[in-house]
TrEMBL record:
Pfam families: Cupin_2. PANTHER family: H2HPP ISOMERASE (PTHR40112). Residues 39-106 form the Cupin type-2 domain. Residues 102-122 are annotated as: Disordered. Gene3D superfamilies: Jelly Rolls (2.60.120.10). InterPro entries: Bacilysin_H2HPP_isomerase, Cupin_2, RmlC-like_jellyroll, RmlC_Cupin_sf. This is Cupin domain-containing protein.
Length: 122
């Protein structure tokens, strides 16, 4: 494998493994040995499904605005905000009027995100 294969760009739509998570919510996934990045795009007012998984997750709001639902709280987030979601804590996002783009980081990588498909997995 060439080292060039290890370089990616947030703004190239064809880069990464595409997955449709919910109506108006898509992601491009980049998996390594010990961590996984997911660039999630939410259409205006789109919302993911409340879900949980054993992997730790960090998120960074790159663009737009959103409400982060985490546990039993709804927390408004703006560009530049970032957060940690411990494993098995129920969570989702609800985009604001201009939509949102989020960088999620998982450790370890989520097995169900290593293949194309749809949904948030189990």
């Amino acid at each position: 494998m060439s080292q060039k294969d290890e370089f990616h760009n947030l703004d190239i739509p064809a880069d990464g493994l595409f997955r449709e998570l919910a109506a108006g919510v898509t992601t491009r996934i980049f998996s390594g040995e010990h961590a996984m990045l997911s660039v999630v795009t939410l259409a205006p007012y789109a919302q993911g499904t409340l879900h949980h998984h054993p992997e730790e997750q960090w998120g960074v709001l790159l663009e737009g605005s959103a409400i982060r639902v985490q546990g039993d709280e709804e927390i408004p987030v703006k560009k530049g905000d970032f957060w940690r979601t411990p494993g098995n804590v129920p969570h989702t996002m609800r985009a604001g009027p201009e939509g949102a783009r989020v960088l999620d980081i998982f450790s370890p990588p989520r097995p169900e995100y290593k293949k194309a498909g749809s949904g948030f997995g189990t």
